């Protein structure tokens, strides 16, 4: 049902306020008082309860929210403005309204009412005067009965066996008697409703939406019973077809004031089908339920700002906290005493006792405490000779209102090897003006793992305790499978796990605290969406179910952070959505977050440094429109900000996070699979290119540095499993930087007002080679406020008794043609130490060598080529450069 404009009673007054800005109150009901230069008033319920209503109030570009406890609002509108004041209630189920207003020179006051819509009666504190059913699950709805009169197995179904789609005019699931999708035998089946009590309802009706396709040989009918189904009276019948969408309203005078009413739909004979949806029995209208509202706003005790992403529960039940109104929460409760518990990530939870009175709003505002850290001091920027160390001290103070725990997280920012001439060769980076690389042979950085037992796509994968898992996905016939497999220690053969309760395609999720969590996805050959969370325990090798998602989606991007599974965008009946949901695994509950800035499906998402990063994805249902934007979500503010453009512009890529970067490998670009792989560093807001993929695959499972299955085209899944060395560890953005350390290392808890002094140390010995090194030290803390990382840079000169070894390895084909050989192994052994080097893309290797190694043995090899060995003296000083080039001959020539 679409929204429509409706306004109720509006009282206009033009009273000059004298000495007070508080609206006058008479008999507990606020009366609007005008103020000069303002549009003021109140928003209240107009359907029976009469309580104040939280709503967005706007006029002529000015916007505000009414107070949830009083309904009062104030709008700055220039005097003389003629227009309409719009009211959009925060609470669901209320009609929006517009009311004509002229703002007087001395201000205008207007009291506004909003009414509960009667189609579904979803407004808090109201119920329908009758029974309604939308058939939104693929199984028989509780209380409904399906009867097979012919005994042929041709019956009413709720899973759309013929793939018709909902043609009734309703949305989501529906009920259908589909002869064409069943056997050729007779069709005579009834769908019978549960009992409905219509006592006191004088003029009941049967309302339903339908789609009847028939050639005249079948009959669709509706009947009513007032004795619990013992006898039936026909109230509607149709033969010969009546295509939807169409809505029927059928009077039921025989059911007036009856306590045991049932309705029945029947389809007999027929060639095609009879589908129904949105069934209602009763009289349209909303009846008030005894009780009142509880409403509150959570604010930050340190800053006074509202707390985005707040979670509130009352007596254990989750209260609503709309993302469009940060910090606000509300709920309808029966009269009496209740306890409201409010928390948000990294804040201290609070409980508030409230007393709910009939038709009133109980206020449950709360101020949440949190730790807050301030850092005095800087990082390290120094030249440190070999054998010495560089140090720096910083002081961290908790200026917040709750304890805070702080530690240090290291992140490598690169190494540039010192050259004999004193310059450094920077690490490979992609220029901002990037261009796709030329085609290259299979890259040595991607290597195979054991293949899956069968080809699959749209599966979900994950790592747990060193084991690799894959669940669900689509088989060659595009149907969802229930199979799961595990690859122990990423070696050997895949072993089956306990089967899933149902097959799923394109679900989101991953491992959270040792449990595989699967959110959303398609079931039944893409005919329906799964709303129930599935959980798998590797320890018990068993499945269980979790909460139902408020919005079932498939093909969503997903990220896991702090025990929460985040899903971004996805597909319903069409692909492209901007919904963002957070599933708290421990609490087994969902909440909505700020919408993604664009509609998208199959984006690449991951958690990096306490934020969610998403890039790419398809932005049209035909998958040819691709979103190249990068967006970063901050849970502390419930906001998205745009990052650097994603050069890959792909959807359906293999995605994970490693070393503080989001990796997106493969996927579909411009309608074709791509080999490109990219990594995004939020700290530098920069994308860099990774080694090309071995095969063209998209829509496969993603684990830690691993791509599991996927399709090369269409829906034909592959068995391929590949791992990218150097990026095969999922983490929260931490790496062990060997040359930098901090003390104390472990987390230190600071009470409000306390400080700790930390010592940072840079040690060249941990670097292993002279050159320029960079790292970041981030504070690992449990506060809701960002703390900027500290930069650590160190230049290490070459010791006076070290020399430089370098060379190039080329591959010699059978015809003698040379070419640089990437990925060749150069084993260097001295008298006391040894090193294994790997040649770069242009075949080079380089290393500084201590002269005390004296004599060096070099062994150079590569798969498919003959090995070469060479002896030489170790270089003795920074100006002593030993150059040893090798030319390997392919075996078999």
TrEMBL record:
Keyword terms of this UniProt record: Kelch repeat, Repeat, Signal
Signal peptide: 1-26
GO molecular function per UniProt: carbohydrate binding
Membrane-crossing residue ranges in chain numbering: none
Family matches, as InterPro entries: Carb-bd-like_fold, CarboxyPept-like_regulatory, ConA-like_dom_sf, Kelch-typ_b-propeller, Kelch_1
Gene3D superfamilies: 2.60.120.200, Carboxypeptidase-like, regulatory domain (2.60.40.1120), Kelch-type beta propeller (2.120.10.80)
Name of the protein in its database record: N-acetylneuraminic acid mutarotase
Organism from which the protein derives: Nocardioides albus
């Amino acid at each position: 049902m679409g929204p429509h404009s409706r306004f109720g009673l509006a009282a206009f007054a033009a009273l000059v306020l004298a000495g007070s800005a508080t609206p006058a109150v008479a008999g507990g009901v606020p009366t609007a008082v005008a103020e000069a230069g303002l549009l003021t008033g109140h928003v209240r319920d107009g359907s029976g309860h009469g309580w104040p209503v939280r709503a967005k109030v706007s006029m002529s570009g000015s916007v505000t929210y009414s107070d949830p406890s009083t309904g009062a609002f104030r709008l700055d509108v220039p005097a003389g403005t003629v227009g309409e004041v719009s009211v959009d209630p925060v609470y669901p189920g209320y009609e929006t309204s517009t009311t004509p207003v002229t703002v007087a020179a001395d201000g205008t006051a207007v009291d506004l009412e909003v009414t509960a819509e009667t189609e579904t009666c979803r407004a808090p504190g109201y119920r329908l005067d009758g029974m309604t059913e939308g058939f939104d699950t693929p199984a028989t709805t509780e209380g409904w009965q399906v009867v097979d009169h012919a005994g042929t197995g041709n019956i009413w179904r709720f899973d759309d066996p013929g793939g018709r789609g909902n043609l009734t005019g309703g949305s989501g699931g529906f009920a259908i008697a589909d002869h064409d999708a069943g056997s050729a035998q007779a069709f005579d089946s009834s769908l019978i409703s549960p009992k409905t009590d219509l006592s006191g309802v004088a003029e009941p009706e049967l309302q339903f939406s339908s789609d009847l396709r028939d050639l005249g040989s079948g009959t669709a009918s509706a009947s009513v019973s007032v004795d619990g189904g013992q006898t039936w009276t026909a109230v509607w019948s149709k033969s010969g077809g009546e295509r939807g969408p169409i809505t029927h309203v059928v009077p039921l005078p025989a059911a007036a004031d009856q306590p045991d009413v049932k309705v029945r739909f029947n389809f007999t004979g027929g060639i095609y089908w009879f589908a129904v949806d949105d069934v209602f029995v009763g009289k349209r209208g909303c009846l008030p339920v005894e009780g009142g509202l509880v409403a509150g706003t959570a604010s930050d005790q340190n800053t006074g700002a509202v707390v985005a992403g707040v979670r509130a529960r009352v007596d254990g039940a989750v209260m609503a906290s709309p993302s469009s109104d940060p910090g606000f929460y509300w709920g309808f409760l029966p009269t009496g005493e209740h306890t409201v518990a409010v928390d948000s990530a990294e804040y201290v939870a609070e409980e508030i006792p409230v007393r709910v009175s009939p038709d009133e709003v109980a206020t449950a505002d709360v101020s949440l405490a949190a730790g807050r850290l301030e850092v005095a001091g800087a990082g390290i920027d120094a030249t440190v000779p070999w054998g010495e160390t560089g140090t720096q001290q910083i002081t961290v103070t908790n200026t917040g209102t709750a304890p805070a725990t702080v530690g240090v997280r290291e992140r490598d920012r690169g190494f540039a090897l010192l050259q004999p001439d004193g310059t450094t060769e920077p690490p490979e980076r992609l220029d901002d003006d990037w261009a796709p690389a030329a085609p290259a042979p299979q890259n040595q950085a991607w290597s195979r793992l054991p293949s899956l037992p069968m080809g699959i796509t749209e599966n979900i994968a994950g790592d747990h305790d060193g084991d690799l898992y894959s669940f669900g996905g689509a088989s060659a016939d595009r149907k969802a499978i229930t199979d799961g497999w595990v690859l122990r220690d990423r070696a050997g053969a895949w072993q089956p796990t306990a089967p899933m309760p149902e097959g799923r395609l394109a679900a989101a999720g991953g491992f959270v605290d040792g449990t595989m969590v699967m959110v959303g996805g398609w079931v039944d050959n893409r005919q329906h969406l799964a709303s129930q969370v599935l959980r798998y325990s590797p320890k018990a090798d068993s499945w269980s179910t979790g909460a139902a998602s408020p919005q079932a989606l498939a093909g969503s991007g997903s990220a896991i952070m702090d025990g929460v599974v985040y899903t971004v965008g996805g597909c319903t009946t069409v692909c492209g959505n901007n919904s963002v949901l957070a599933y708290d695994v421990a609490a087994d509950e969902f909440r909505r977050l700020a919408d993604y800035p664009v509609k998208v499906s199959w984006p690449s998402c991951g958690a990096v440094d306490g934020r969610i990063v998403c890039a790419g994805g398809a932005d049209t249902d035909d998958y040819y429109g691709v979103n190249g934007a990068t967006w970063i979500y901050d849970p502390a503010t419930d906001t998205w900000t745009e990052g650097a453009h994603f050069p890959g512009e792909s959807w359906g890529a293999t995605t994970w996070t490693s070393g503080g970067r989001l990796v997106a490998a493969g996927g579909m670009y411009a309608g074709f699979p791509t080999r490109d792989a990219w990594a995004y560093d939020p700290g530098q807001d920069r994308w860099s290119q990774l080694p090309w993929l071995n095969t063209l695959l998209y829509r496969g499972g993603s684990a830690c540095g691993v791509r599991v299955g996927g399709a090369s085209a269409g829906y034909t899944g592959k068995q391929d499993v590949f791992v990218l060395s150097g990026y095969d560890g999922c983490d929260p953005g931490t790496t062990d930087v060997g040359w930098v350390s901090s003390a104390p290392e472990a987390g230190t808890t600071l009470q409000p007002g306390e400080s700790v002094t930390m010592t940072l140390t840079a040690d060249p010995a941990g670097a292993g080679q002279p050159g320029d090194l960079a790292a970041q030290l981030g504070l690992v803390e449990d506060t809701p406020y960002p703390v900027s990382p500290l930069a650590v840079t160190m230049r290490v000169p070459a010791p006076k008794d070290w020399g430089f070894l370098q060379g190039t390895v080329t591959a010699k084909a059978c015809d003698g043609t040379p070419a640089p050989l990437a990925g060749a192994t150069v084993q260097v052994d001295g008298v006391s130490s040894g090193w294994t080097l790997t040649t770069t893309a242009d075949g080079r290797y380089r290393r500084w060598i201590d002269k005390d190694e004296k004599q060096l043995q070099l062994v150079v090899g590569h798969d498919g080529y003959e090995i070469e060995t060479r002896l030489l003296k170790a270089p003795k000083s920074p100006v002593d450069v030993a150059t040893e080039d090798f030319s390997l001959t392919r075996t078999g020539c």
